[in-house]
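Quick note —
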Amino acid sequence: MIDPSLMPSPCFVLDEVALERNLAIMRRVRDEAGVKLLLALKGFALARAFPAIREVAAGTAASSLHEAWLGRDEFGGPVHACCPVYLDAEWDRLRSFCSHATFNSLSQAGRFIGRRGGLSCGLRVSPEYSSATAELYDPCARGSRLGVRAAALAGALPEGIEGLHVHNLCEAAAEATERTIECVERLFGRFLPHLRWINLGGGHLMTRRGYDVERLIAALRGLRERHPGLEVILEPGAAYVWDAGWLVATVEDIVENDGVRTAMLDTSFAAHMPDCLEMPYRPEIVGARRPAPGEASWRMGGMTCLAGDMMGDYAFDRPPRVGDRIVFADMMHYTLVKTNLFNGVNLPAIGVQRADGTFELVREFGYEDYRSRLVAARPHGVA
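Predicted structure written out below.
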């Protein structure tokens, strides 16, 4: 466990030991199932961790030009792009960074496939199945804009398409991967003998405690055995850093109204942990628990002016006091990549808890990070 007093606040802290634990599981899946793993940068993109992840992942998966650029410059290896929409002004540059590109629609394929150069191109298809419980994270919901339905592919695939891409899972169990494969083979199986690859996307949460890794390996191996000419690709994001880090914060004030006690923090759910409000989910706090009926409880209050920038309820053995450190658990996936500067609130620092127990400060942020997004580049003075 970390010593939060040694770190700046707020601060995201990557746990190097937990990262290696996750990578060992993913290496086993890769080797025993005979699949290729990529790192989906939309889930985690801290370059400090890339050397370790590179031992398991063959390359990166990108959902935008800038992610592809980062993958090429900082991670290396092939970059697989799968963007909901490609922009004409960006296509040639993005193509120069990538080895693969997946089109979200037949119209996008028709628009760009003639300019693919050396890219291996694929089509995103909908298996018309998802295990996601929140509609916000369900790409197979009714009317979804993501993926081509089987009914639209009554004939052949567009000329130049070499692979299919499926992304329909979110923090899913192995059973959901099995079901996805079944749906893909039923809806699109006639195309598979003529393709080079299939990408089963992300959402395979193979590093979560209790996940049936053997079942996942069997499902993937079975797909490969039924289609021996097909390369099978997975692009998890969260699985690499599941339960592999913290967000350290500090209690700055205590507010009590209508019998509700709130510990006001120097961090924000809206700006630093937006998935907590979007999904939504209640993050765990080290040393806290869910209150028993009638037990005194506390809310955690974010520092922005958004009324809903808060989370609860938590019980502590000792009531929080101003100056106490609060440590949120499992704060690596979809945090650093989704932080924002609402209210001009400063971004948390970033650090690493090394395997030898020492702390490494990777990055701190300040006013220029906020200003540079909003003000034209020009010399300026200090007010």
